[in-house]
Amino acid sequence: MEIKFDEKGLIPAIIQDYYSKKVLTLAYMNNESLGITMLEGRTCFFSRSRNELWRKGETSGNFQKVVNITADCDGDALVIEVIKDGPACHTGEESCFFDSVYQAEGHGPFSYDELYEMLKKRKGSPKEGSYTTYLFEKGKDKILKKIGEECTEVIIGAAKNDKAETIYEIADLAYHLMVLMVEEGIEMKDVSMELARRHVVDHKIKQEKMK
Questions:
Q1: How many CB atoms lie within 10 A of CB 48?
Q2: Is 141 left (phi over 0), alpha (psi -120 to 50) or beta?
Q3: CATH 1.10.287.1080 corresponds to the domain 112-207
Q4: Hey, where are the domains in the chain?
């Protein structure tokens, strides 16, 4: 596909976290910075305010390893998936997009990464009356018992063909699994990497069968 730069020789690039798929920032590239990005495997942008190239992380140390670059259907915008070494925003926030402008009622923000971070904080800073604190205080045996119970509840809900109940119980199971992950020091990216590895292996197997 032909990459189309605008009249100033620039193309907008949406930077996205490879694991969480969270949008990290919107930056611009010219032909040279895009070439450097692909050659070095790290993001390099063009600063419109300074009128010069800048490599993300060259001063902060928060580099972004490039995993994938995709152009849109018109070839005039890019999505770049990265594995980041630190916050994407100069403010120290993980993403540059953190100021809410509008939120539809009943659709509050949620992410597994934020839930995981909350569970980590609860483990490090116990809170009286918190169910999560209770689980961590009781230890792994209690957490594993709850996971077993929630697995059974999921099976019962699905066996009854009760979609609402099944969704509810899957949510309970997901929560308890994440508590176990925190207890065992397993991070979200560890699971994402394992799933990605399986996807790659499965894709290669399918390609071999097609030969």
A1: 11
A2: alpha
A3: yes
A4: 11-84, 112-207
Domains 11-84 and 112-207 share a fold: no
List beta partners, residue 46: 53
Parallel, antiparallel or unpaired: strands 78-84 and 11-17: parallel
Strands 78-84 and 64-71: antiparallel
Burial (0-12, 13-18, 19+ Cβ within 10 Å), 188: middle
Per-residue pLDDT of the chain (211 residues), as tens digits, is 799 999 999 999 999 999 888 899 999 999 999 999 999 999 999 999 999 999 999 889 999 999 999 999 999 999 999 999 988 998 988 899 888 787 676 666 677 888 998 999 999 999 999 999 999 999 999 999 999 999 999 999 999 999 999 999 999 999 999 999 999 999 988 998 888 888 765 555 555 655 5
Q: Which two tokens stand for residue 83?
A: 């594995």
Q: Rounded to an integer, what distance in angstroms lies between the CA atom of residue 60 and that of residue 86?
A: 9
Report the chain's C-alpha Rg in angstroms: 22
Cβ(83)–Cβ(65) below 8 Å = yes
Fold designation for 11-84:
Ubiquitin-like (UB roll) (3.10.20)
Alpha-carbon gap, residue 202 to 39, rounded angstroms: 28
What is the strand order of the sheet 78-84 is part of? 23-29, 11-17, 78-84, 64-71
Q: Which pTM was predicted? A: 0.62
